[in-house]
Design a protein that fits this description.
Length: 601
């Protein structure tokens, strides 16, 4: 028997700023029911009211109509994106203040696992420290329903892994707003989609969301075409653009695989170039940043051990690692902002960069969008090409009608998107992006992926967003905190696989330490056989085909009625997905093995 919901919102309507956000004459009243073990992803574009909906669920906003019902004694806790700590001296003082104040020892226990000192003063705390403190405060309250607004923002990879593990064991319900696709795919079991004032729900995790979204848009477009309503069709320009963008990005991902394969044959285990695809002169002529045996230490602590890399024009470099591992230090050395203790960094004189950092320089609130982009005019210079400001707004997923709106009325995510639009218009051949995905919605991340893929210059990205790195970078520089920098052709997942192999290899070495040494190996491996070379060239495309097949299968299984209406089809599709995953894993392992052989030649 189904258990009663923890919380229900029925017939909700809310008016803000003179317009109806939910309900009213333009939208259906909002209904939402959250069960005791729900794992819900809340999806929607920046500015549609996701955070407002959270505050309605939490009871912090009084609506214009509707009822809010909560199970007796149920505890709802909101993990806010930007909590106000101003009135508290220390992080612990803030954590112990609230409606459901936790016990201090419970906060300390979680804070210890997250690596945050709760006695730290709130004034000097960094974004990452505040985020860890907020998580410790929320989880220590033992909620029945946990609302999380961008929980992975400002967290490093270790903290994200810890939070994912905690949520997998969590016995209550949660609703999460996040741009972190990997986080959402691993944890959610159903999706609620806030779109143009309407709330839809489907019993499928985030992994099936995009297929569902495109199905809804396609059905709406067909209905509008049948009515021959031009104005209604025009209202869908943004949705159709998002669908088309995803299809284009599939082609870009195939190109990315090719670039990674090419780069793998040019990178040795130490990160130095091996000139297989070009003469030395041609290779050097394309180089824009050359680091030779650079090191950096602060006091007794080594941040970067001797490290070499030749970055070419068009490379997309991802830099990953835990907070404090040296990512920003390495980035600053590669861009010439910081001198290495030893070694050299040569930067091409023609390199002109645009920097977008995680602090995101503030936009003047009383300026209009037109003033921010075009200094009040109708035209904007986009990397040397003149474009109408309203057409450029559409490129960045804005309704052109906002051109004369004040920055102050935009949501935080919309302001971040507007800043990206302004910075990407500048002429440059180097993009430096420090945590670019914070505060962006999923569709803006698709757009950012597209901009990076089409950018003709070189890109350096520091990010904890695993999925974003897998979709954008050709080379990953992985820092493990010891000073060592791994150079891997590929994205985050490729670096993670290399780390796992290193752990396995180290374990085997330790087990064999007391055994007699084997006979010396051949001085140089032979070149790839014809079959190996063919596999090395063709496997990336096959892996893409298998990923597409898995996505199609998951979209079919997203139909909640399939199991009862056609159990044989359900079984066949499930088996097909399982087989495709098995083949994909084997293909990836095979290609990585061949790539290592190529590097050793």
């Amino acid at each position: 028997m189904a258990q009663p919901p923890i919380l229900s919102l029925e017939g909700m309507a809310l008016q803000q700023g003179g317009k109806w956000l939910f309900g009213g004459p333009d939208h259906e009243p909002l209904d939402l029911h959250i069960g005791p073990r729900d794992r819900l992803a809340l999806i929607g574009r920046n500015g549609v009211g996701k955070t407002t909906l959270f505050r309605m669920i939490d009871g912090k906003i009084e609506t214009d109509a509707g009822t809010r019902k909560i199970k007796p004694h149920a505890k709802i806790v909101l993990l806010e994106q930007d909590p106000d700590l101003a009135w508290h001296k220390t992080l612990m003082e803030w954590a112990l203040d609230g409606e459901h104040a936790p016990q201090e020892h419970e906060v300390e226990a979680i804070a210890g696992q997250l690596g945050i000192d709760m006695s730290r003063e709130t004034k000097g705390a960094s974004g990452g420290e505040k985020r860890r403190a907020a998580i410790a405060r929320a989880l220590a309250q033992d909620p029945d329903l946990l609302l999380m607004d961008e929980p992975t923002n400002h967290l490093d990879l270790g903290a994200i892994d810890w939070l994912e593990s905690w949520l997998e064991r969590y016995r209550g319900a949660f609703v999460v707003i996040s741009h972190d696709r990997t986080f959402l795919k691993r944890l959610t079991r159903a999706t609620i989609w806030l779109d143009r004032g309407n709330l839809r729900r489907k019993e499928v995790g985030f992994g099936g969301y995009e297929a569902w979204e495109e199905q809804v848009y396609a059905e709406e477009a067909r209905a509008a075409e049948k009515l021959d309503a031009k104005l209604k069709l025009e209202a869908h320009w943004l949705e159709r653009g998002v669908t088309a963008r995803r299809k284009r990005n599939q082609g870009r991902l195939e190109k990315l695989w090719q670039m990674r394969a090419q780069r793998a044959s040019m990178i040795s285990a130490g990160g130095t170039a091996k000139l297989k695809l070009a003469t030395e002169e041609e290779f050097k002529s394309k180089s824009v940043i050359v680091a030779e045996k650079v090191t950096k230490a602060y006091g007794d602590r080594t941040i970067i051990k001797p490290f070499s890399l030749r970055i070419q024009r068009g490379d997309r470099i991802g830099i990953v690692g835990a907070n404090g591992a040296g990512k920003t230090t390495l980035l600053k050395m590669l861009t010439g902002e910081l001198e290495p203790d030893s070694g050299t960094v040569e930067i091409a004189k023609t390199l002109t960069g645009v920097m977008i950092d995680q602090q995101r320089q503030l936009l003047t609130a009383d300026k209009t969008v037109r003033q921010v982009l075009a200094e009040g005019g109708d035209w904007i210079d986009v990397r040397g090409n003149r474009k109408h400001v309203q057409a450029y707004l559409k490129d960045f997923l804005f309704d052109p009608k906002i051109v004369d709106m004040k920055v102050a009325v935009l949501s935080g995510g919309e302001r971040s998107r507007l800043l990206l639009a302004r910075e990407f218009a500048k002429a440059s051949n180097l993009l430096v992006l420090d945590e670019p995905t914070n505060d962006l919605d999923l569709e803006t991340l698709d757009l950012l992926q597209e901009v990076i893929a089409d950018y003709e210059g070189t890109v350096l990205i520091v990010s904890h967003d695993r999925d974003f790195l897998d979709r954008t970078v050709t080379i990953t520089l992985g820092l493990d905190g010891t000073g060592k920098v791994d150079v891997v052709a590929g994205g985050y997942e490729d670096w993670e696989k290399k780390r796992q192999k290193q752990v396995v290899g180290k374990t085997k070495t330790e087990k064999q330490a007391d055994k007699p040494s084997p006979a010396p190996a051949a001085s140089k491996p032979s070149k790839l056989s014809y079959k190996d070379q063919r596999d090395y060239e063709l496997l990336p495309a096959r892996i893409e085909e298998l990923e597409a097949a898995i996505t199609r299968g998951e979209a079919i299984l997203a139909d909640p009625d399939l199991y009862t209406s056609d159990p044989q089809k359900f079984a066949n599709v499930s088996k097909g997905i399982e087989n495709a995953r098995t083949e994909k894993d084997a293909a990836e392992e095979r290609w990585l093995m061949l790539a290592e052989q190529v590097e050793a030649l």
